[in-house]
Amino acid sequence: MMSLTPSPTAILNTLCKEFLHANVTAILYMMNYESYGRSTASAQYFLQLAGYLGIPVISWNADNSGLERRASQSALQLQLAPSIEHQSAAMLSILERYKWHQFSVVTSQIAGHDDFVQAVREQVAAMDHFKFTILNSIIVTRPSDLLELVNSEARVMLLYCTKSEAIEILHAAEELQITGENYVWVVTQSVIENTQTHPQFPVGMLGVHFDTSSGALVNEIATAIRVYAYGVEYYLNDVKNTGRRLDTHQLSCEDQGRGRWDSGEVFFKYLRNVSLESVESNKPNVEFTADGDLRSAELKIMNLRPSVNSKGLVWEEIGVWKSWQQQKLDIRDIAWPGNSHTPPQGVPEKFHLKITFLEEAPYINLSPADPISGKCLMDRGVLCRVAADHEMTDIDMGQAHKNGSFYQCCSGFCIDLLEKFAEELGFTYELVRVEDGKWGTLENGKWNGLIHELVNRKTDMVLTSLMINAEREAVVDFSEPFMETGIAIVVAKRTGIISPTAFLEPFDTASWMLVGIFAIQAATFMIFLFEWLSPSGYDMKTVLQNGQSTPYRFSLFRTYWLVWAVLFQAAVHVDSPRGFTSRFMTNVWAMFAVVFLAIYTANLAAFMITREEFHEFTGLDDSRLSHPFSHKPTIKFGTIPWSHTDSTISKYFKEMHYYMKQYNRSSVADGVTAVLSGQLDAFIYDGTVLDYLVQQDEDCRLLTVGQWYAMTGYGLAFSRNSKYVGMFNKRLLEFRANGDLERLRRFWMTGTCRPGKQEHKSSDPLALEQFLSAFLLLMAGILLAALLLLLEHLYFKYFRKRLAKKDRGGCCALISLSMGKSLTFRGAVYEATEILRRHRCNDPICDTHLWKVKHELDMSRLRNQQLEKAMHSHGIKPPQLKMASTGDIIGAAAAAAAAGGGGCAKLLATPGGARGAHVGPRQPPHLLGNLSLGGSAQDLYRWSYKTEIAEMETVL
Question: Looking at the whole model, is its pTM more than 0.70?
Answer without folding.
Answer: no
